[in-house]
Amino acid sequence: MLRIECPWCGVRNEDEFSYGGDATVERPADDASQDDWYDYVYTRANPAGRHREYWHHINGCRAWLTVERDTMTHEIFSTEPTSASLPQPQRKTGSL
Amino acid sequence: MSQQYRTGSGGQIDRKKPIRFTFDGKSYSGYAGDTLASALLANGVHLLGRSFKYHRPRGIQTAGSEEPNAIVELREGARKEPNTRATCIELFDGLVANSQNRWPSLAFDVMAVNNLFSPLLSAGFYYKTFMWPVSFWTNVYEHVIRRAAGLGTASTAADPDFYEQCHEHCDVLIVGAGPTGLAAALAAAETGARVVLVDENPLAGGSLNSENHEVAGMPGDDWAAQVAAQLQSMENVHLLLRTTLFGYYDHNVVAAIEKVSDHLPVPPKGHPRQRMWTFYPRRVVIAAGATERPLVFGNNDKPGIMLASAARAYVNRYGVKPGRRAIVATNNNDAYRTALDLHRAGVTIAAVVDSRAHPEAPLAAELAKHSIRLITGRTIGAAEGRQHVTRALIVSTQGETIDPERIDCDLIACSGGWNPNVHLHSQSGAKPVYDDAILSFVPGQSRQAEVSAGAAGGSFALRECLKQGRAAGIDAARQAGFKADKASPVIKAHDDGAYAIEALWISPTPYNKPYKQFVDQQNDVKASDVALASQEGYDSVELLKRYTTQGMATDQGKTSNVNALAILACQRGEPVPQVGITTFRPPYVPVAMGVFAGHTVGAEFMPVRRTAIHDWNAKQGAVFIEAGLWLRARYYPQKPGDTMNDCYLREAEATRNNVALVDVSTLGKIDLQGPDAAEFLNRLYINNWLKLPIGKARYGIMLREDGMVFDDGTTSRLGENHYFMTTTTANAAPVLAHMERYHQVEWPELDVVLCSVTEQWTGIAVAGPNSRILLEKVIDIDISNEAFPFMAVGDCQMNNIPGRLFRISFSGELAYELNVPADYGEQAWTELLEAGKELGVAVYGTEALGTMRIEKGHVAGSELDGRTTAQDLGLEGMANREKHFIGKQNSLLPALLDEGRLQVVGLKSLEPGRNLRIGAHLVDPNVQIGSVSPSQGHVTTTTYSPQLGYGIALGLLRDGRSRYGEQIEAVFPLDDEKLRVEICHPVFIDPEGELVRG
Amino acid sequence: MAKKQPDKQDLVRVSPLLPNEGDHIIDYARVHLVERKALSAIQVLSFTGKHDKAAKAIGKALGIDCPIEPGHCRSDGKTQIFWNGPNSWMVVASDVECGRAAGELFATLQDAVSNLGAVVDQSHGRCVLRLSGARAREVMAKNTAVDLHPRAFGAGQCALTSIAHMNATIVQVDDTPTYDLFVIRSLARSFAHAIEHACHEFAEETAAG
To answer: What ipTM score was computed for the predicted complex, to two decimals?
Structure first.
């Protein structure tokens, strides 16, 4: 069971979140080539170790989060709001 | 004679509370505080079961949860529970238990013949013996193996009890309430930290209950009881007895099982049988103690042979003499206590056999004081006896061929040393390391917030346990952020002597005869099996485990793992640490499936979503269908004997010819507001959204990034910056998550907010040529075709209910959808029915809804299967290629535009009275590869069309759109069905859409 | 077309859980569960960059500080405002208790928030249960992994989480403890069943425990 710290809600069980995939992949510009769009959908690095990924706090505050996680050990190094335009969390983090 | 092996006094049993119980149909008595094992021993019953493979008679080896042999079927009927450890079953009045894995009786077991065929049943025998012929597997081998090998049988009746789950957060979790754990809990609790202390026993105290130790100037068990009471009275401490921590997971989450009612005949009203705890501790102190390992000698599995610590537990804790004439065999100091305790209780000690040539002088002196014979430099080579041990053969540890001494006995208490319980430490991701001083594995570097203390950390002396426990408790509390300035003083205890051991992993056999020397008694794995596995190349620990099954099943090799590794090391001629240790995985003890399910079983397996019209539907006798979590009315029987066909045909006809209502509340509804709402929709949908007027709805299609169609529905513009989207029932949640992703991750520059309003509204579709006439009676706005044309949207009052009306149609008829706040949903529904009475208004369910959507050629979930593009569905004309939208680029990938893709078509049955079947394959009988006509597509949804008078369907067919008019076969090979069908345009009725606009 | 005159009884809100009379589900000595019926629940979502202004506007309109800190709730004893996500609040009240006409709270908020955000009526979309009593915290622990220990969670706090595998919001009302539990309307019965089930263990207890 992963425990993921939502920057707004605090640390919650993994089952409150849904995995949103690789956060290192950037969505191409509208007029990018078909190859770029193909890579965006289908090509993934699948690294062993530190990895940035999206998680959606779907059974909580519904914020999308960018999480840096070690894919080997599940250690989570950081959790940040993905959207810069949502009001940012004003709370002390780190409580259980 | 009853309880003839009970001591005269002592033990933590209540001799004033006798308890009757039954084992294998025979009635016995015991006392409150007994386990089933101790009560049977008190009655002189040692034979409890037959072994897994060889059906050898087996008795009681331990006094705890590590028991490999004494497993029984507990209770009867629906509550029958197989593979229950007699050593852990607390005795209750009326308890019924039965031995297992024997036939026809425990004493005479036909399958014991396996014992004679044991050369055939060596390591890996499953893989070797039953190889050929292949056909024998299903017909012969599986049947025979299942009958011969295997443990108890489970009840097939539903479990009458319930289980539940519970969560708890704490600063310090302490596993084990023995001396170490109690000291840790006291120290941690006094800092003010939130402490949880769990122990699998019904009493706190651990080994203190089985030993004659003195702690803080009182008997150890009294001290434990006193500390437990003190802890229980503290508001920051939660002491959970009968609770076994069985799993250590990522991020310091641990799980335990609490046996709430297992010690009672039936659970008290409202109470679960068992409860699963998930703990979220900041720090964990593992004070789980140690497990003794047996000696490996010939016939070491006979009833009457048990661990030295178990013999001590039976005599001290339960007041039971496990025999009358005992031999104590050991390779370490600890077992001497067993000899002295048994002696004190009146058991004759025939000898203490110590494999070490020179045991420490004080130990020998203590025995001499009680005139107990000590044999050194020797060990037991083999035991004799049929269903119970009667004699031991003593051999030199050096293995020289001498005539072994024969000593009569009815009890062998043996100790091969102690293994710290490193299971949880290993489960946490850490690697235990080998410690030469104790010849066992001790915890290595921690990977999570855990530390082992006391015996679990490899320190067995009582004083050391108390000291380490206290230190670990203080440390853990400190690391959880608490100050430990007033921590309790060190607890005083008597010196129980230092632990010392010399290796003896396997005994020489007398006369070099091939005695069976069991390593893993539960799986019938012998020392020779380990050797064989090694010779055959299965010489890594992980392979050994899987090849021999050593360490598997209910005891997970708690008593056998280290012996097996050491014997493997001997085989490989390497030191034990080089061989390594297998990784322990949860669960530490068997855990019932029920406790993982908790109360979410039966009707509560999944939550159920009900619409506001549900109760009305139920009262009408509607038949429901699950749609995701929703229950939707499928059809409405009107009289007894009405079939589904009768109903949906009647309901569809009523809609097509008159007017009818359907509950469409389950459609997803999303409210979008903000200056950029239109732009957001424009990027989301493939069609145009920038010029939709206020008060109008539009049908939209959205794709995934890979170009496949994701969902469809109508979205209405309610105000300048206000839109109301509907989704399919199935995709309501995924579409919202998808929109939130694009809003937050990809397009944060768009100023828009969105939220689900699915639950706020009850949706009622009013469909049919008379729908306007019906609605005009109750709606306060002008809904004439001129004032309220197709795709119009407006606020309204229905009688006195506020609502919103949409002129949209799924059935293809003139139709409206009325949304009202859900608490008024049933009222709106019944008022519409009342108003429509004179018209003969009807209601219809999802079955008729489906029929009409097929007739109209509307694609739905069965066609939007995640593999179809807008082009496959014939909807590509909607796409605006001038703008950008999700999935645009990838929908243009060559593979998605190629010829040969499956396209939506209509299908007509050409055989009167026969309908198509969902999932049938579409084949051209004239095209054959070999003897098979390859599938060219499949039927996605099907119905009988009351309008047309024959069976119709939608299907996905290769290049289907260019094949209208062709005849083909719909085949269903599972039932050997074939049906001639004609391919046609998917819109069967009113292709110009005149009805909806009328 | 002429307006239709209401010719039926007055509008009655039919609650999703107990559609008929009564609101008590569990009434044991040390744990109580009731349905709070016919509440107004108005969701406010702030537009980009307008969050603080929207909070002030709501606060001014209702005379209650609108919580900016996540996981917090403010109340004047009758009207609750709880944090409902990074850009969202939920305003909850019983119109009858507050002496407001139906729809008045929605209109008040819409006026106050105006172009700072969206105001969405969810009054009919939620079922609200009130769980209270000395055993309430233990009942909650059976269904949620959120730490509700007084050191971690108290009156004036709320959590958007999952309870018995259903999305729900926990608002702690007082230190009894009393919790208001919000769940979507359609799940009302499954949700109540799970909470109810967790209460049964305490059925035989007396007030003294």
So the answer is: 0.96
